Amino acid sequence: MKNVLLAVGFLISGFVVYSLYGDGGDPVAQVTNSAAVNSEPIDYYISVQATPTSAYIVSLVVTTNIPLPVEVMAGVSATGQAPTDIFIGLSRRVTLTSPEQTLEIDGTSENLPSGEYTAEVTFYPRWGAENGTEQAKAITEEIFGAADVTLNGSGESRGQADQRNIAQRWVMENVSVGTAWNESQFIQRMGQFEKSDSTLNLHDAYFFPDTDMTIIVSRVNSTVATWRMGEATQ
Q: Are 136 and 66 within 8 A, CB to CB?
């Protein structure tokens, strides 16, 4: 009887060992391999469709598989700008709450010129998932989508807008209270002007339409009193 019990014990032991190893190897390795399959990185994306709805407004249909909610930067910018160019465009922070969401970008306040633009939506991992899920917080790469769009804008060309921006920057960086009024230099930098009386006593207002700025000049000593964006008299 004792020999029979020993034989049965050996058979049971052999069955357990076969169950663990007979189907292909180390059970620990099997668990590890399963975990590796489940932890494969997800290919997150953002796609954008852009449609102009007016001279300045663009409707963006944004599709993403990023775990939501997240914050993104959405905007439009003139196509082909160099890093040293004065930026033409605008952007704003938007919260995405749906895998497909429609956004509106309105460039009216920027008086965007006519031309080709790039509409772009970008997720920045540094701050985009601050109020999001743990899966979103684990993303370490920027994710973006872009689409081309044509805007009628102000009717002004891209080149005209560039020239205006360059002239405005020159004024901001070089003209201040007390700057000597050199008419030929200002015409060279800002284009032709329209002169009128300033509401300031003994001052003239020089409005430069191409630059969209006004320079207020003292008649007493021919120096700049101030400058203004747009047309002004004081």
A: yes
State the Cα torsion 192-197-201-206 to the nearest 10°.
Answer: -10
Q: In sequence order, what are the residues at sequence separation of 6 or more whose Cβ sits closer than 8 angstroms to the Cβ of residue 228? A: 213, 214, 216
The dihedral over CA atoms of 74, 58, 166, 229, expressed in degrees to the nearest 10, equals -100
Task: Report pLDDT digits (tens) over 193-221.
Answer: 999 999 999 999 999 999 999 999 999 99
Asked if 68 and 132 touch (Cβ cutoff 8 Å), the reply is yes
Which tokens is 30 given?
Answer: 């099997």
> What are the residues facing 70 on neighbouring strands?
96
**CA 159/CA 154 separation, integer angstroms:** 13
Provide, for the chain, the percentages of residues in helix, strand and coil under a 3-state DSSP scheme, each rounded to the nearest 5: 25, 35, 40
Signed CA dihedral, 63, 64, 69, 74: sign only: negative
Amino acid in the structure at residue 35? A
Identify whether residues 141 and 183 lie together within a single domain: no
Which of 151, 184, 208 is the C-terminal boundary of a domain?
A: 151
| Pair 137, 51 in one domain | yes
Full-model pTM: 0.72
Q: Got the DSSP string for 138-196?
A: T--S-EEEEEEEEE-TTS--HHHHHHHHHHHHHHHHH--TT-B--HHHHHHHH---EEE
